[in-house]
Amino acid sequence: MIILLKEIQKNIIYIHQELKLKSCLTERYQDEAVDTRSEIITIANAVSNLEALSAFDSVALDSSLVTEQQTLTLSADGSVVPGVFELNIGNDALTVNLDGVTSPNVSDIVDAIRAESGYADKNYTVSLSDDGNSVEISYKAFGPQPESSAKSTLTETVSADQIDSSVDVAGDIANFAVQSIAVEGSAVENGFAVSPGQIRLSFGDVELDLTAAEGDLITDLLADAQADAGYADLPFTLAVSDSGDSLVATWKQVGAVSDTLSLNRDYQQTTETSIDATSTTDGDAGISTQELQS
User: pTM score, two decimals?
Assistant: First the structure.
């Protein structure tokens, strides 16, 4: 505060000297009067602020300078999902990738933040809370700080429920067996789009491992199945049903068939969770512009 007062005093002296110089030059060379109203107003404001600062209670000022503390709670038991965490700490964007980490916890996130390049020069420090569930954020500067937040993104492989074929024709000595198996997906303008994922079509000991990409149609799935090396070992041929949303298996030889086909699908599921920090201690910068002007 003493330094601030001295700076104001220096500015007043400088402006005063400028005014004296302009006045002397005007008298010596008999020039037109120089407009010094702006300098006078500046001096008046500086004197007013100097008086306000001189009258301000320095003890009260020191006690009102507070650094903000925030808590970012990421867990209830210390553990976190093995995903990607996008953090925003005081408008400082960070990414912590824990994808593939075995049994990750909040301390891993704290360690990753501390390991960031330039961490020592940031406007904050982080630590692990006593219960191990939160990232404690301590700002170095006085005053209010932007709210911190975190968003976790977990991508995992999930197995859909198995689908078994339905018997359309059981087959006998004179008829070929026919079965239909539904495929997960939805109708689109140009056909039936298959839900993406790893698809396994099984019958007996034969398995066809297929991949349905985003936007693939059931006709694409059929073509992949027919191109699979194991397709020739199946006792039936596959085609798309008249409804366009199922595969139809027609046996190559007549006779009764009791076994059915099965279809399993593994797919990627993404879950996002957003968390906002809470301020445990609000920051305060001390003397305000309003206090100086009052």
Answer: 0.59
